[in-house]
C-alpha cells in the first residue's frame, strides 16, 4: 500500500493525491466525451478531465463530511450536500442535475405560467438516448472510492446525487472543451479573470495559467489537455477550487503523453 505524504495545509481527510490512480478512469471520461462530440480526445486530456472531476467531487464530499461531523455522523445524507453547497458556493457545480434530484426540489423552486398557475414538472423521459442524467450510474464506483478516501460512507440517495453531479459536470466540461477547440480558444473572457465577490485577487500562477490557455493550440479535431484546463476555467468560477483543480490536473498529466 502506498502511503501518501502529509499535507499539513489541509485539516481532516486529505484530497486524494494526484499521483494516485484516479477513481474516474480515462475510458469512462472518453465515453462521456463521445456522448457530446466526435472529436478525438487525447490521453492527456482524458487524464486531465478525470483529475478535475475528482478534485471537484472530493471538495464536495469534504464539505458534506464536515457538515455530518457536526452531528457526529460518518454516513452522509443529502442534507449534508445541501449544507456543503450553502457554506461554499464554489461547490455549486453540475446544477443541471438539480432538476432530476429530490434533494434539490426546494431549491429549484416552483414554476408559474403567465396566469399564475403552477407549471407541472417535466416527466422523466424513457428515452434510451445516453445523457448526463441517464449515464450518471457510471460514476458510482468512483464516487464510493472517493467517499472511502474521506473516511465516510453515504446513503444511496447521497451516492446518487454525487453520481449525477459528477456526470453532469464532466458532460459540461466536455461540451466546453469542444467549443474551445472549435473556436480556437476562449474569446469571451479575453484576459479577464472571473472571480467571485469578496474573494482575494487570483495569485500569479492562476493569472498566468488563464492567459496561457486563452488560445487553442493544435488542430481542430483533437481535444488536448490545455483545452480541458481552459474548459475548467469556464466551469469553475470560484478561484480557490479552480486553482486547485488546475494545479492537480497539471500535476496529474505532467508525465502523460499528448497522444
Give an overview of the whole structure.
With 259 residues, this protein is mainly alpha-helical. Helix content is 48%, strand content 3%. The protein contains 9 helices and 4 strands, in the order H-E-H-E-H-H-H-E-H-H-E-H-H. It has a two-stranded parallel ribbon. Helix 1 (26-36) packs across helix 6, helix 2 (43-69) crosses helix 3 (78-87) and helix 2 packs across helix 9 (239-252). The protein is globular, with a radius of gyration of 19 Å. The relative contact order is 0.19.
Q: How do the helices and strands line up, and which of them pair or pack?
A:
Elements: H1 26-36, E1 40-41, H2 43-69, E2 75-76, H3 78-87, H4 105-108, H5 140-149, E3 153-154, H6 156-183, H7 204-212, E4 222-223, H8 225-235, H9 239-252
Parallel strand pairs: 1-4, 2-3
Helix pairs in contact: 1-2, 1-6, 2-3, 2-6, 2-8, 2-9, 6-8
Amino acid at each position: 500500500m502506498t502511503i501518501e505524504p502529509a499535507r499539513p495545509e489541509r485539516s481532516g481527510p486529505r484530497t486524494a493525491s494526484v499521483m494516485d490512480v484516479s477513481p474516474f478512469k480515462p475510458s469512462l471520461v472518453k465515453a462521456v466525451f463521445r456522448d457530446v462530440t466526435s472529436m478525438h480526445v487525447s490521453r492527456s486530456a482524458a487524464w486531465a478531465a478525470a483529475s478535475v472531476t475528482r478534485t471537484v467531487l472530493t471538495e464536495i464530499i469534504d464539505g458534506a463530511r464536515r457538515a455530518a461531523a457536526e452531528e457526529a455522523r460518518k454516513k452522509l445524507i443529502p442534507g449534508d450536500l445541501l449544507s456543503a453547497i450553502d457554506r461554499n458556493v464554489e461547490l455549486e457545480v453540475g446544477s443541471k442535475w438539480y432538476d432530476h434530484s429530490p434533494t434539490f426540489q426546494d431549491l429549484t423552486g416552483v414554476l408559474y405560467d403567465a396566469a399564475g398557475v403552477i407549471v407541472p414538472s417535466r416527466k422523466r423521459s424513457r428515452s434510451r438516448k445516453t445523457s448526463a442524467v441517464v449515464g450518471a450510474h457510471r460514476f458510482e464506483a468512483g464516487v464510493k472510492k472517493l467517499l472511502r478516501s474521506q473516511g465516510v460512507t453515504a446513503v444511496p440517495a447521497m451516492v446518487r446525487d454525487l453520481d449525477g453531479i459528477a456526470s453532469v459536470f464532466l458532460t459540461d466540461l466536455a461540451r466546453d472543451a469542444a467549443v474551445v477547440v472549435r473556436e480556437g480558444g476562449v474569446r469571451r473572457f479575453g484576459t479577464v479573470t472571473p472571480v467571485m465577490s469578496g474573494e482575494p485577487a487570483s495569485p500569479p500562477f492562476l493569472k498566468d495559467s488563464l492567459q496561457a490557455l486563452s488560445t487553442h493550440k493544435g488542430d481542430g479535431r483533437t481535444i488536448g489537455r490545455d483545452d480541458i484546463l481552459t474548459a475548467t476555467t469556464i466551469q469553475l468560477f470560484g478561484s480557490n477550487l479552480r486553482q486547485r483543480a488546475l494545479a492537480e490536473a497539471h500535476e496529474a498529466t505532467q508525465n502523460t503523453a499528448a497522444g
